[in-house]
């Protein structure tokens, strides 16, 4: 039978050093676990933010631009006497700031030019 480990020297407050060492090692393990959990939470938060950013950039923003350009483009086409799709293409190219338009049409009437500039500046009609 093995001899029990002799008690370590007691501190002034009456605790043994073995208890103190056990507490310290427990704190070290807990700190390591906390650091790993914090790293996982940080990574999860970063992935969540990246997912939200991707949804906004690649899904929500294009849907909003198309939803805005569709009725206003059709109205512009009516003002100019174009096909409906040409008004939509023209307004999409203006809203997206494309250097080369998506259609060969451009507004010639003053009222249509005002409509285009007001709808693209965000003020509406």
N- to C-terminal distance: 95 Å
Determine Rg (CA atoms, Å).
34 Å
Based on secondary structure, the structural category is mainly alpha
Q: Which ranges are low-confidence, i.e. pLDDT below 50, for 5 or more consecutive residues?
A: none
Mean pLDDT: 79
Strand content: under 5%
- SSE order, one letter for each helix or strand: HHH
How many separate structural domains? Answer: 1
Question: What's the shape?
Answer: rod-shaped
Strand element count? 0
- Enumerate how many helices there are, as a single number: 3
Structure at a glance:
The protein is mostly helical.
Explain what the structure shows:
By secondary structure, the protein is mostly helical. The chain has one domain (19-120). The protein is 70% helix and 0% strand. It has three helices and no strands. It has helices at 17-80, 84-96, 110-120. Helix 1 (17-80) packs antiparallel against helix 3. The longest helix is centred in the middle third of the chain and has 64 residues, at 17-80. It is rod-shaped, with a radius of gyration of 34 Å. The mean pLDDT is 79. Keywords: Membrane, Transmembrane, Transmembrane helix. Residues 106-125 are annotated as: Disordered. The chain crosses the membrane at residues 46-75. Residues 115-125 have a biased composition (Low complexity).
